[in-house]
C-alpha cells in the first residue's frame, strides 16, 4: 500500500508543477500581448500626432519606463488631446524649405483678402534678395473664406509666387489661434534645418537688417540657439470685459483680471526647437482665441521658457511710426506697426538710406500702391 501511495504523491506533485507552469506561461503571454497592444496604440498615436515632434518632450507626455513593461500599463497614462487641430491643407508649398542651407524662415499671419499687404512685404523687407542674404525664406499663412472670387485669387497668387500656406479653417479673428498652430505645424514638418523663426503680421514693417545684426551680435552670442523667444513682452495686461470691444473676454473663458506675461503678436523671433515643442504641447492645451496669449503665454509657460524682452525695438502706435523712425538715430527700432501702405514704402526707403545701402526692392512712389488698413495691435 505505501509504495503505491508514494507513487501517487509523486504523480500529483508532477501534475501540479505542470499546471502551475502552464498558468504562469499563459499569464506572461497575456501580459506581454497587452503591453504590445499598448505600445502599438502609442505608436499609432505618435504617427497620428505627426509633423515633427520633439522626441524628448513627447516622452514626457507619454512616459513608458522599463519596469512598466512587466505589467499591464493603463491607457490613462496618456493625457487626452484637447486641441486636435483637425484641419487639412488647401495649399501646401513643401518646396519652400527644400534648400538645406536655410537658417531662418519668416511666417506672416495674413487674411485671404490682404493681397496688397502681401505685395508690400514681397517688395520691401521680404524680397527674395534680402532674405537670401540671411539664408532665409518667407511664407504667408491663412485660412479659407466663403467668397469664391477671393479663394480663386489666392490660388492664382499662390501659383505665381509659391509662398502661401492655407488650411481649411474659417479665416476669422476668433480663429487666429488656428492660424498660429497652422504655422507651427507646417514649419515643424517642412523646415527642420532652420535655426530661427520670425513671426510677423502683414501690417508690420521690419528693419530686417537691424534685426539680424542684433540677433547675430547680441542674442545668439549670449544665449545660443535653443529655448529662445525674443519679443515685445506684455506684463500685467488687463483682460478686457467691455462687451463692445473686439477683445472682450468672458469670465467663463478666462477668470483672472490680468493675463500672465506674454508677447505682442505683432512680431517675435523664436528658435526652431521652441516652434516644434509649441506645436506638440498645443494638442494638450485647451483652445483659447486670443492667439498671442495662447502661443506666447500659455504654450511658452508649459515649455518653461523665459521671454527675452526687446520692447525698445518696437513702435506699435501706427500714428507715430514715421516720426519715431526719423528720431531713431541709434537705429534701435526694428519693428513698426503702420496703417497705410504708402507710409510703409516711404519708411522702407528711409531705412535703407540710413544704412547707406541700395534699396533692394521697390522704391516708394505715390502711384506705386493704394490702400490702407486700420488694425489695433495688442
UniProtKB/TrEMBL annotation:
Gene3D superfamilies: 3.90.550.50. GO terms for molecular function: hexosyltransferase activity. Belongs to the glycosyltransferase 31 family. It comes from Potamilus streckersoni. Its EC number is 2.4.1.-. GO terms for biological process: protein O-linked glycosylation. Pfam families: Galactosyl_T. It is a single-pass type II membrane protein. One of its GO terms (cellular component) is Golgi membrane. It is found in: Golgi apparatus membrane. This is Hexosyltransferase. The keyword Transmembrane applies. It is an enzyme of class 2 (transferase). Its main location: Golgi. Keywords: Glycoprotein, Glycosyltransferase, Golgi apparatus, Membrane, Signal-anchor, Transferase, Transmembrane, Transmembrane helix.
Amino acid at each position: 500500500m505505501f509504495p503505491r501511495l508514494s507513487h501517487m504523491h509523486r504523480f500529483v506533485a508532477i501534475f501540479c508543477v505542470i499546471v502551475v507552469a502552464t498558468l504562469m506561461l499563459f499569464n506572461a503571454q497575456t501580459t506581454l500581448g497587452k503591453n504590445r497592444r499598448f505600445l502599438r496604440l502609442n505608436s499609432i498615436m505618435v504617427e497620428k500626432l505627426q509633423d515633427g515632434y520633439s522626441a524628448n518632450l513627447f516622452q514626457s507626455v507619454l512616459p513608458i519606463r522599463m519596469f512598466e513593461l512587466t505589467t499591464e500599463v493603463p491607457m490613462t497614462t496618456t493625457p487626452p488631446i484637447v486641441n486636435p487641430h483637425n484641419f487639412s491643407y488647401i495649399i501646401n508649398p513643401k518646396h519652400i524649405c527644400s534648400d538645406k542651407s536655410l537658417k531662418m524662415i519668416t511666417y506672416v499671419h495674413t487674411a485671404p483678402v490682404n493681397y496688397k499687404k502681401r505685395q508690400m512685404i514681397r517688395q520691401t523687407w521680404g524680397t527674395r534678395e534680402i532674405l537670401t542674404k540671411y539664408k532665409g525664406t518667407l511664407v504667408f499663412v491663412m485660412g479659407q473664406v466663403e467668397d469664391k472670387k477671393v479663394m480663386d485669387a489666392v490660388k492664382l497668387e499662390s501659383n505665381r509666387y509659391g509662398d502661401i500656406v492655407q488650411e481649411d479653417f474659417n479665416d476669422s479673428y476668433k480663429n487666429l489661434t488656428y492660424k498660429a498652430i497652422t504655422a507651427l505645424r507646417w514649419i515643424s514638418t517642412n523646415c527642420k534645418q532652420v535655426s530661427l523663426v520670425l513671426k510677423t503680421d502683414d501690417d508690420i514693417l521690419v528693419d530686417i537688417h537691424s534685426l539680424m545684426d542684433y540677433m547675430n551680435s547680441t542674442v545668439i552670442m549670449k544665449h545660443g540657439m535653443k529655448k529662445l523667444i525674443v519679443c515685445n513682452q506684455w506684463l500685467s495686461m488687463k483682460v478686457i470685459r467691455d462687451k463692445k470691444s473686439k477683445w472682450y473676454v468672458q469670465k467663463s473663458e478666462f477668470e483672472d483680471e490680468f493675463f500672465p506675461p506674454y508677447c505682442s503678436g505683432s512680431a517675435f523671433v523664436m528658435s526652431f526647437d521652441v516652434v516644434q515643442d509649441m506645436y506638440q504641447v498645443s494638442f494638450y492645451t485647451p483652445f483659447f482665441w486670443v492667439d498671442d496669449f495662447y502661443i506666447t503665454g500659455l504654450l511658452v509657460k508649459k515649455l518653461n521658457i523665459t521671454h527675452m524682452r526687446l520692447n525698445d525695438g518696437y513702435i506699435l502706435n501706427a500714428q507715430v511710426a514715421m516720426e519715431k523712425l526719423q528720431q531713431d538715430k541709434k537705429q534701435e527700432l526694428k519693428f513698426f506697426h503702420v496703417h497705410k501702405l504708402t507710409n510703409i514704402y516711404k519708411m522702407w526707403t528711409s531705412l535703407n538710406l540710413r544704412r547707406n545701402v541700395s534699396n533692394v526692392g521697390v522704391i516708394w512712389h505715390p502711384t506705386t500702391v493704394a490702400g490702407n488698413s486700420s488694425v489695433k495691435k495688442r
